[in-house]
Amino acid sequence: MNNPSEKNMVLIYAALAAVTFAAFEQVRLNDFVYYDDSKYIVENTNINTGLSAKSLIWALTSYRYMGHWHPLTWFSHILDCELFGLNPAGHHLMSLLFHIVNTLLLFWVFNRMTAAVWQSAFVAAVFAVHPLHVESVAWVSERKDVLSGLFWMLTLAAYVLYVERPTPWKYLLVVLYLCLGLMAKSMLVTLPFVLLLLDYWPLKRFNRQQALPVVLEKLPLAIPLVISSVMAYAAQQSTGTVVAMADSSLTARIENVLVSYVSYIGKIFYPDGLAVLYPRHDFPVWQPVVSFLILAGISAAVFFARQSRPYLMTGWLWFLGTFVPVIGLVATGAQAIADRYTYLPSTGISIMAAWGFAGLFSGWQYRKNLLAVSAGVVISLMLICTRTQVLFWRNSVTLFKHTLDVTQNNPIISNNLGVVLSQQGRYDQAAENYRKAIRDCPVYAEAYYNLGIALQKQGQSDEAISNYRQALKLNPDYAEAYYNLGTILPAKGRFDEAIFCFNKAIQLKPDYAKAHNNLGNVFLAQGRLDEAISHFRRALQIESDYILPLCGLARILATNPDPKIRDTVQAISLAERAAVLTKYQDASVLEMLAVVYASAGQLNQAAETSEKALSLAADAGDNKLVELLRKQLENYKKGMNAQNVKSENEQKTP
Q: I need a surface site. Which of 329, 489, 549, 613 has the fewest CB within 10 A?
């Protein structure tokens, strides 16, 4: 094929950018999803508060949070929050921008190495629009994929320039980009191996005379690899995401590896039934055997064709080698395989297809037309599939329902869908999904716990208690289950049991502010004021703006007749602080503030505050609170009248 002019090269870059944007532009309409996004960003105050010295230090030093050490990825999320707040559109578009840049760099690298413009363009286009890459681009929490992908591509580009004219500074640039990539995602530990593959083809540096120097040249790159691997393993072990080697035999792991490789090949060529989580499951005995035969057959064919078609060796080993960190030899997480893991490895198969297919028709007069039409059809079909797949990521409900439609026995996703439905107040549907999760996994403590919450919200307290107890039976260290169980028991008069549950929750989680607050309420109901005050104060030490203990403590200090406890000045300070935090828009907080004002003899302020609270309660339809406020307001007005009469009598007295 004729090489295009510089003007046409610009058009190729523009076309690649346009097709990538066309495939993924709908991400701008997508929400955050309840699958790591909440913990990564939405609820993570180290990230969602934006750029600060504190957030940057946390990003560098945190390796226990979520089982990853990837400070550069945290930096990118912090910057997004600084620029866009918690508007998901900005976060999604930033991920798409990284993916577009990665596509253009991939084209530049292979075109620079091979001068095969159209094969390089095909590899880049497949990378750009393959449906398997939707998870990496459309899932904000997978920013680490597209960000580490950027430094993967930059490392390749720097290495190509180094090979063309070696200098120490160019080599240092290779090292720098590799280090930055490892700080975005540790999966880049295979990158030096890929550089050796490129030395073999297309750079053709890997021959008998140069083999040893080319290998030795990569040794300095081992230093950041070792550091990154140690940090990654320590981070995952600290959160329990690494499955112990003793949990499965070496044979079982090898069988899983064989099946996983073939599964990935199948999804690359036929990306149907894509899901956010593919659960682990047992497979029939024949499957590892057939998988081994397939992999062995491809490997043998590639080996025998290494002289005439060296690109097959590079592509095949690229695919096999880059999967090693996530293929299952060291199992992490609950997934059997994951679409996101293909983001970089799938390029190896694209290399084999691009150069292999073109080589089949060399010399045929209609070769150009066939290749152009074939490539156009493949890219078009992928683009359509990708746009469809992006829609499934519109929100948590659509994502989880689709995953349950295309997978079986997926308790984690059933549980997650239940949580999202519960957040929307759809407790019946939530309970249905929790029960499905329990049927699929009878030892799933979190599903029992969440089912307890849904039942408690529906007033089915006995059933809720039963599920909380089952969760604790499966996980005796479940602090949240103890806490929720404790919240039900006081209404049944079982105060001692409630105290035990809250104390147990605090023992497991010492900074559990909600448990301290509720324990304070139980002690308050029993008249054990010193203990109630102690726990309210402890809750406020943990969370200084926690409204409930502010109100509880203020009410005790204002209304208790014991002069050793009563402190109306501090009570007013606490109550006004709670009102400010709620922007004077919470009727129950204002009711409490009115009580505090009245206890201090400030009946005018008490009446004004009570009137405001009464209006808010009426608007909210809280009839019980409306009735209470009307009685209180009447008493405050009577008290004001009595004060006025007393004042008039005092003025008349000579």
A: 329
Burial class (CB in 10 A: 0-12, 13-18, 19+), 209: exposed
| Surface-to-core class of residue 306, CB atoms within 10 Å of its CB (0-12 exposed, 13-18 middle, 19+ buried) | middle
Number of residues that this document lists for the chain = 654
- Asked if residues 4 and 79 have their Cβ atoms less than 8 Å apart, the reply is no
pLDDT in tens, 543-580: 999 999 999 999 999 988 888 889 999 999 999 999 99
- Six token digits for residue 283: 């497979």
What phi, psi does 335 have (nearest 5°)?
A: -85, 145
Q: What is the mean pLDDT of each run of 10 residues along the chain (654 residues)?
A: 76 97 98 93 93 93 80 96 97 98 98 96 98 98 97 98 96 97 94 96 85 91 90 67 55 91 97 94 92 98 96 98 88 82 98 91 78 94 98 98 96 97 97 98 97 97 98 97 97 96 97 97 94 96 95 93 89 95 94 93 92 93 93 89 69 59
**621 phi-psi bin (left φ>0, alpha ψ -120 to 50, beta other):** left
Number of other residues whose CB lies within 10 A of the CB of residue 324: 16
Residue matched to tokens 């290494």: 306
Give the C-alpha distances (Å, rounded to integers) separating 407 from 270, 272, 382, 410, 570.
16, 11, 22, 7, 58
Q: Kindly report the pTM of this predicted structure.
A: 0.90
Q: Specify whether the CB–CB gap between 178 and 155 falls below 8 A.
A: yes
| Pairwise CA distance, residues 630 & 623, whole Å | 11
| The pLDDT of residue 243 | 47
Q: Which of 583, 581, 592 is nearest to 628 (CA)?
A: 592
DSSP-assigned letter for residue 133 = G
Closest C-alpha among 579, 643, 635 to residue 606? 635
CB 152 within 8 A of CB 362: no
Question: 3-state class of 279 per DSSP?
Answer: strand
Please give the full DSSP string across 475-490, using - where no structure is assigned. Answer: -TT-HHHHHHHHHHGG
State the burial class of residue 7 (Cβ atoms within 10 Å of its Cβ: 0-12, 13-18, 19+): exposed
DSSP H helical ranges for 445-478:
445-457, 461-474
Q: Which amino acid belongs to residue 33?
A: V
pLDDT computed for residue 654 by the predictor: 54
Going along the chain from its start, the domains and CATH numbers come out as 6-396 (no CATH), 477-535 (1.25.40.10), 545-654 (1.25.40.10)
Do 261 and 323 meet the contact criterion of CB atoms below 8 Å apart?
Answer: yes
Q: What does the DSSP assignment read for 500-538? A: HHHHHHHHH-TT-HHHHHHHHHHHHHTT-HHHHHHHHHH
Locate 533 and state its tokens.
């005050």
DSSP character for 408? S
C-alpha gyration radius of the chain: 32
Q: In 4-65, where does DSSP find H-type helix?
A: 6-24, 37, 45-48, 53-61
- Least Cα distance to 98 among 48, 156, 138 occurs for 138
Query: Rounded CA gap, 81 and 79, in Å?
Result: 5
Yes or no: say if 593 and 575 are a contact pair by the CB < 8 Å rule.
Answer: yes
The helix-helix angle for 547-559 and 513-525 (nearest 10°) equals 30
